[in-house]
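Exercise 7 asks you to align residues with tokens for two separate proteins.
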Amino acid sequence: MELGQKELGDAVGVSAPTVARWENGQDFPKGEKLPALAAALGQPLDALFPYEGPPDLQLLRCDAGLSVAQAAEIIGTSRVPVSNAESGRRRLADAYIQPLATAYRVTEKELLAAQDCSFGVRPKISPDSQASAPRTVGEKINYLLEHGYPGQEAPSDEKIARAVNDYAGTAVVTADDVVALRTGVTTEASDTVRAGLASALQVDSALFQDDAEVSPAAREFLESLRFLGSIRGGRILGLAARGNSEGLSAEMMATINSLVGELKHKLPEDGE
């Protein structure tokens, strides 16, 4: 049977009107509600709410299904130490590390690493990870075509060429030229072509400059495109991504979009 607002709310521990506000985008669920929400939808947490990068303290707490108040109760304090640590203002006292690690179901080492992330200390990116980022003009075109058009057909090489030429005001590329760039046969492109490609694929022109990778800001923009493209008939949950109160990844939104209104999963049995 389908999960109605009340049924989903009961499974997550909120009211039906709260679920309604999620559905129409007026509100987002708190991070600690996401594990229960994933369980109610019958989906793994990491699959339904993907998270990129190392976790911080807020993510660990939310993934444990705990509010700030509940975490504070575990260490016998007010909310201040937990909130200060999560916001990067003051680190946790040593006495709080072990009980919170246990409550969050992680090791003390993992908790301390997450605390470093909350304070802006990020692990170094490996050379392999850097190499995987799209760098050439062709790699960037392919990346944008793959991730920028959810639920709709990506522009063809012919359409991209026409858009580039329209931007330039003259014929500067052909469809075969676009294919050559995408397949790596050609790696060079003029400034006019690069700017035209950015216009055709609806991204900032800086993305197509030499050695420019797909930056976090550009990835966020792509995720926004995917989110907008995944909206179907207004039946989409306005959910907050894990560790992000402002929105969620396009992957998760696309998954939610395919589920909402079509769910056949039963509520978890008592005790699950």
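Second protein for Exercise 7:
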Amino acid sequence: MKKTLLAAALLAGFAGVAQAETSVTLYGIIDTGLGYNKIKGISDAADGSRIGMINGVQNGSRWGLRGSEDLGDGLRAVFQLESGFDSGNGKSAQGGRLFGRQATVGLASNSWGQLDFGRQTNIASKYFGSIDPFGAGFGQANIGTAISAANTQRYDNMVMYQTPSFSGFQLGVGYSFNADSNRGTETGFRTADNTRAITAGLRYVNGPLNVAFAYDQLNASNKLTTEETDATPRQYTIGGSYDFEVVKLALAYARTTDGWFAGPGVNGASGSILSTFADDATNVFADGFKANSYMVGLTAPIGGASSLFGSWQMVDPSNDKLTGGDEKMNIFSLGYTYDLSKRTNLYAYGSYAKNYAFIDDVKSTAVGVGIRHRF
């Protein structure tokens, strides 16, 4: 009897050790609401408005698995699988990928950092999401409208290394061997058959101060047209925020050349544009295109449960090689959140863009209210 009790105690102890060394977490977000969007100024046939359900406005709806295994000496094996979906109809997002938001496996250490392999967001999206008053969400209100490489840009087939934080400083660098496997016209056996991507950045986060710099580059597939292969889209982004407690101020600037990263769907040939700002929107290669982008934002807490925030964004293109227009695009946005609990909140936002997609007198208006639940 004593031996049986001893064996049971030992087995329970080993089970506890195994549980401490290996962990898997299920998590997710469901974000759904009602919204209104209107595009005006393109043509009588293309102008229009829409009212109906909206999904993934504050944050993209998702579910995911995150896990780690202790390998000893401070080393861990880590993985993250994250699936995006439309909560309005249940369909998969990110081009129908099962784990379109993230699919990575790697090694991590508190001493030397983390090395990941697979699909995930670029460095600009990681570093500037916390600077943007809209948290890189809320449709055309998010920082990625003006600073396209920060618009939740994801790359397939990427190797990424991020250092740990050293006195507030952190460095990240990544390389994608094929940035978008879904674009069959730009993929092939040879390395140069695929559009490749470089992403890098440095940030400093210490108390109320958050400062970041990022660089992104796309190397065109040789299967694209001659004009497109002559273009190498690049974006340099710098910005920061400072929390004064009563208000948080955010500023950002970017210089973009030879194209555009994720952002509004643009069809320069027909002069039409889409009214949605989706993840993984088509990258546009445009040799000779240049633009300066700016963002100024404010966030103000109201009591302990709500927050008011807003931003002004502006993009000043040097020519019409991207969309057929070269007007300055201005975006004015305002948002509000109210926490019902630690996991559930309500939100409302409005955003107005003038000279949308740099096309003269094209206007885009978006308004929405919704609820977000995290688990």
